[in-house]
Design goal:
The chain is mainly alpha-helical. The protein has a domain of about 55 residues. Helices cover about 50% and strands about 0% of the residues. The longest helix is centred in the N-terminal third of the chain and has 16 residues. The protein is globular and about 30 Å long.
Amino acid sequence: MDRREIADIVRARIGELLDHPRTIEEGDILSHHGLNSLLGVELTLRVEEEFDIAFEDDELNVENFETLRNITDLVAGKVGVRG
């Protein structure tokens, strides 16, 4: 698995939650697309399940889940994907 695959999977999970096919770019602020705190919790759970990872309490902050890029970076680090 590479970074692009991680981003595609996370993008798909975001699309499911927001219930629209709008393209999410890596740098987009997800709240501008309708991701609120409740949906953010659901996204966190789906990403953890999808990648068989667990986020630490200190990783569960607004900055880490603000953009697709940030989420991808966080997941990539947890699954050992570099670059």
